[in-house]
Fold each of these.
Amino acid sequence: MTAAQQTIHVGGEWRAALSGATREIIDPADGTAFAVVAEGGVPDTDDAVAAARAAFDDGSWPRTPAAARAALLRRVADLLKRDRERIGALESQDTGKTLEEGRIDVDCVRDAFLYFADLVAGEDPGGRVVDAGSDEIHSVVVHEPVGVCALITPWNYPLLQASWKIAPALAAGNTFVIKPSELTPLSTVALVELLLEAGLPLGAANLVTGPGDTVGARLAEHPDVDLVSFTGGLASGTKVARAAADSVKKVALELGGKNPNVVFADACATPEGFDTAVDQALNAAFLHSGQVCSAGSRLVVEASVRERFVAELARRAGRIRLGRGTDEGVECGPLVSAAQVARTEEYVSSALREGAVLRAGGERPDGPGYFYRPTVLDRCHRRMRVVREEVFGPVLTVETFETEDEAVALANDTEYGLAGAVWTADEERARRVAARLRHGTVWINDFHPYLPQAEWGGFGKSGIGRELGPGGLAEYREAKHIYRNLAPRPVRWFAGEQRKDQA
Ligand code: NAD
């Protein structure tokens, strides 16, 4: 890359936007601009798709053996290890998350590259032989890359979400165009640089920085794109699905969540159990200021322990240290933008108008930056907007239940279905409740962990398809059945010839 605003990468060349437009990237900890990127548009997007198309149709990457593709992915993982501090700090400054979270994100990105490298390296290149029921037929199913992939990512985990798409897309032999969030594009630029350094053929990876309603929308509708994989909000996701429909391209959507954290009284019966459940409820709700798709933003707690639980939760929420993500001792950074703070304020006001009781937070602290205090809203109910809609800020709502059936009904009472947790000391209950929850990930006595080996995605309006795991690779592939007749002979079905059954 030669200049700060040359953040568009097309066919091996870094360039500015064709229009010359640029965008300032804002540090959410103080609201000042700290970088400038190219503000791409539709013509840049068309160029990037054309480069990815040419690299897919005529380039070497789709025809590179799986072992060599895996080796490249492993080189990327090595480079991420080398640049962990630099990229972790960039991610922290761009998103506002703490430096430690930025570093952990880089480690998780590495894990994704290594996982998909191992997955394709370990496969039988001959495909899956199918028993056709006859010695005269040899039938095999092979998996081929889908083609040109459009990858659209959000601002909360820019690098991580990019890796969940780029690693399987490349592992499967696709070429791609990625469009990061216009708010947080910098770590994606850094990742594309590492792909090139690792030796990815030119044209296989293309990047357009720019807005969703131009660059993103064009990618979704573009006839030369074979698959669009989108992570972001429900409103944009439905637009992507609509735009993709005309060209019948494959669509994968990772959308929002309104994730229940169900706490039974038996989980709080011992001091250690109580402490763990409260601590994890805090983490579930307030990690990265609640700007997590799987945030446990709905506490669903058994009535008999509600008061004790909420009092302790509110006390600890009030002690969370806010500040710039790179400052020593800071536990929680700012929200990503002024708009996100305004949105959070609006949800809290509406909840209070609807009868919620404020137990912690509910305000911005003094000073610069897009901060909002971790907020606990007690006495919430399922009809409140704050309980039904994704706030994507540090706001935890509290609902109560008396029976297991009621707990399950509340936990499933959402149009989303991304993730949910159940806290209980009763193993049988844990199994029963986990089986009944309609969510893509269910945690028992835990919250937030995911594994690259396990599929991630949502029921309901949380999305279509899965990332990670074998299913996350399958999204980037087409299955092809190759049927070989080892003893071909006429079938005599048609006119003029003797029918086989009459022979
Ligand atoms: P967003 O929907 O505003 O934007 C996501 C991306 O889509 C951005 O790159 C944006 O520029 C682009 N975009 C916007 N409009 C578009 C359009 N019409 N066509 C194509 N692209 C368009 O979401 P956000 O605010 O950046 O991210 C937060 C959302 O992402 C939350 O809802 C969160 O739950 C979700 N998310 C989900 C997961 C998951 O794994 N399910 C992970 C992270 C974030």
Note: The pocket of nicotinamide-adenine-dinucleotide is lined by residues 152-157, 161, 179, 181-182, 211-213, 216-217, 220, 231-233, 236, 239-240, 254-257, 293, 390, 392, 418, 458, 463 (CB under 6 Å).
Amino acid sequence: MAVIVQKYGGTSVQDHELVLRVAHRVAGLRSQGNDVVVVVSARGETTDRLMQEARRFTDAPEQRELDMLMSAGERISMSLLAIALNSIGCAAVSFTGSQAGIITDTRHTDARVLEVRPFRVVRELERGNVVVVGGFQGVSTAKDVTTLGRGGSDTTAVALAAALKADLCEILTDVDAVYTADPRIVPDARAIDEIGYGDMAELARLGARILKEEAVRFAERSGIAIHIAGSNSDAPGTIVLKEPHGQEPAIVGLSLLEDQIFLSVRRVDHDRMMSWVGAAAHPLFVVHSGDRIEIVVPGLPPGVVVPDDAAKDGVSGLSADVVAMNVDVVSIVGSGAAEGVVVTGAIAELERSGTNCIRSVALGRSALLVLPLGSGARAKLLLHDSFIGTGQ
Ligand code: ASP
Ligand code: MG
């Protein structure tokens, strides 16, 4: 008998009918004799709506209270799914992250999983129940409810799969596989059968929203293979694992982050930049380029004010002391992505199409191209054509 952990994303449990559909799929697995643990996300836009609700009172709600509030979204999904399962004759019980034994650090709204103690989950499985767990949440070492950062239900699923030594960890979502690029932007994008942890983590970090980077890292550390597939599709999906079988292409995919902030500061202002870098939660990169330090961040950290006179006139303004620009970042990912020919080829290709590359950074398994705001999607289409192509 196999132990299976399945995670369903928010769009897959959005309404009554979809919850029932998930329930039938889960019940099918259970009736084949498997032990099934289901992790669910909050329905649809619930998490965003809850945050907006809090911000109607203040711009700076207490992080602890935000966690209490946001974790409620997953409670709704988990209890409804358990009710739906029981209603069709499949015995189920739901647990919050805390009840499922997800222990985290105390960093509210962006906590890290430290340990999983799934005693209650195991006991309920032994009793023959399907266990439904609210994703994205845990309990801190200080016994407060925490959440794991946006997209954190993926992390819950992988952490539980590792703790239960599951035979299968499935992330089921509204997209039926990991693609070489977002198919909504690049119609020629292809589904990837197998991808290594390193490339998947890079794609996730650089904008592919299908799986949270943290979850991939967790899977890598515990050697868990993740199967990503559509919640409502029979397509084979993608397996994320240590080493894909067969010859892996040097470039596996492209990702895009729109509307980021590029900051370039002359080195004399090193202290100011370092304080910005310190405050920024997750800079995409930090580079020392000539006499300047440059970073790309998703948004300015609270309290960081860019001086009014920061040049905003694109590349020509790059001699000013402080430059702040809204940009798009297109990334090429794969073991060969950081090679010089790829980077220079990409820049030349973009230039031919009239897009100026503000900065390029090639490191490890990716090449990042910082482009003017609004040009990212077209650039991604173009680069997909030249680096991945239409057929294989
Ligand atoms: N509901 C949370 C979010 O919207 C967690 C998740 O969906 O994984 O980010
Ligand atoms: Mg997600």
Note: The mean pLDDT is 91.
